[in-house]
Amino acid sequence: MFISEINVFPVKSLRGTGRETALVERRGLANDRRWMIVDVENRFLSQREFPKMARITTDLTDAGLILGFEGKRIRAPFAAADSKRETVAVWNDRCPAEVAGVEINEWLSDILEARCRLVRMPDDSVRPVDAAYAIRADDQVSFADGFPFLLIGESSLGDLNSRLETPVPMDRFRPNLVVSGAEAFAEDDWKRIRIGETVFHVVKPCSRCVITTIDQAEGVKTGVEPLRTLAEFRTFERNGAKKILFGQNLIAENVGGSLRVGDRVEVVE
């Protein structure tokens, strides 16, 4: 088994970028979900309400983040000296974030046709992982939905696509890591894995939502698939509620190492 894809999504719900290598940090892959877009009440926005967000591209340079849309690009520095901090909300979590400048916020507001702002999670802003799944008391996460890393098996998508009239690409599920060479849904049974220098704990299956029905290239909702088909064979009861599960959330046991496409995946437990 080996890593066949590494994906980083700098801004929550915007288009990500494929990488050959990525650094493992406590909050996830370096620069993954370190930015997000919030509304006037400082609550996060996502493709659930704004499918068009999938069409906004992201790129990283030494100076900061570059966003693109329909041939136009705009830059946001990693940290501006005059950035003001405000408390922002991701689901039920609250944490401090740096607000981007007026120009980029107006640019995004025009695209989404709604007042919004770009915010960045500074290094000293801590958002804890759900204590029920954390492996350490101080485990933390970026602006991702709940966990630092998301992994999906390539064969798991193949199994799903064999049941669909029209196959869907892996980008519908926005994983950080894709594993090739494992049986379909083998990841469901993993507890700990080693990739390169890093050991990961497989802590919780990923609950899927309407974002899986959004074409990530066009930024439009395509109907009810693949969510409807997933519901037929991947619905499980979790904490008294029925959830559609696809993929696994991970927490790194050790950080600072690099992951590379082609790295071997070893099941430790």
What can you tell me about this protein's structure?
The protein is mainly β. The chain contains three helices and 21 strands. The protein has helices at 102-112, 154-163, 227-233, and strands spanning 2-8, 17-19, 21-25, 28-29, 35-38, 57-60, 64-69, 72-77, 85-90, 93-99, 117-120, 149-153, 177-180, 192-195, 198-207, 214-215, 220-221, 235-238, 241-252, 258-260, 265-267. Strands 1, 2, 12, 13, 14, 15, 18, 19 and 21 form a nine-stranded mixed sheet that branches. The longest helix is centred in the middle third of the chain and has 11 residues, at 102-112. It is globular. The two termini are 15 Å apart. 38% of the residues are buried.
What would you say about this model in short?
The chain is mainly beta.
In terms of structural class, how would the helical and strand content be classed? mainly beta
Provide the helix percentage.
Answer: 10-25%
Which stretches are poorly predicted, pLDDT < 50 over at least 5 residues? none
Largest sheet report: 9 strands, mixed
Principal-axis shape: globular
Report the average pLDDT across residues.
96
**CA-to-CA gap between the ends?**
15 Å
User: Regarding quaternary structure, how should these chains be classified?
Assistant: single chain
- Please count the beta strands (DSSP E, at least 2 residues each): 21
**Which percent band covers the strand fraction?**
35-45%
Number of helices: 3
**Rounded Rg:** 18 Å
The arrangement of helices and strands along the chain is EEEEEEEEEEHEEHEEEEEHEEEE
